[in-house]
Amino acid sequence: MEKTFLMVKPDGVQRNLIGEIMSRFERKGFKLAGAKLMPVPQGLAEEHYGEHKEKPFFGELVEFITSGPVFAMVWEGEDVIAAARQMMGATKPSEAAPGTIRGDFGMIVGKNVIHGSDSKESADREISLFFNDGELVDYQKDSLSWVYE
Ligand code: DAT
Ligand code: MG
């Protein structure tokens, strides 16, 4: 089953949105494989956002993601990477559809509440950056027979 890395950013944690966001993914039918509240050290932030290091907003992005704890999660499901991106909404909250996380809870691109992997490669990379193998749990979830055929 495909896995994705999702992270409630410091603004979402401060604004008490962890439960709301996890609830959306749970109700959708994703299966939780791991989760933790954690600070993001400078080096991890720079590596995680490495693809943006030449962008003018890189400094602010790293400063923001290290400004308070994040809630890091790994969720599993069929096409879960794309499904989670749909549920997050567009990068700019002003362009994110109502009903999406960024559309419902965000106002500006610099505080857009949630991160999610955008491809299989980034999911694998980000999961291994934030989680050790021992922190991911593989278990049977019988209710999934009511989610899938
Ligand atoms: P996403 O988070 O939707 O994958 P991204 O990978 O293009 O978007 O950018 C990573 C983060 O960087 C994004 O969530 C918010 C910030 N960001 C992106 N574009 C920006 C911009 N034009 N100005 C300021 N911050 C920006
Ligand atoms: Mg991205």
Automatic annotation (TrEMBL):
Keywords: ATP-binding, Cytoplasm, Kinase, Magnesium, Metal-binding, Nucleotide metabolism, Nucleotide-binding, Phosphoprotein, Transferase. One of its GO terms (biological process) is CTP biosynthetic process. PANTHER family: NUCLEOSIDE DIPHOSPHATE KINASE (PTHR11349). The modification Phosphothreonine is found at T91. Belongs to the NDK family. The modification Phosphoserine is found at S122. GO terms for cellular component: cytoplasm. Its main location: cytoplasm. Its EC number is 2.7.4.6. Gene3D superfamilies: Nucleoside diphosphate kinase-like domain. (Microbial infection) Catalyzes the phosphorylation of dZDP to dZTP, when the bacterium is infected by a phage that produces the substrate for the synthesis of dZTP (2- amino-2'-deoxyadenosine 5'-triphosphate), which is then used by the phage as a DNA polymerase substrate. This is Nucleoside diphosphate kinase. ATP binds at K9, F57, R85, T91, R102, N112. It catalyses: dZDP + ATP = dZTP + ADP; a ribonucleoside 5'-diphosphate + ATP = a ribonucleoside 5'-triphosphate + ADP; a 2'-deoxyribonucleoside 5'-diphosphate + ATP = a 2'-deoxyribonucleoside 5'-triphosphate + ADP. It comes from Halobacillus litoralis. Transmembrane segments: none annotated. Its cofactor is Mg(2+).
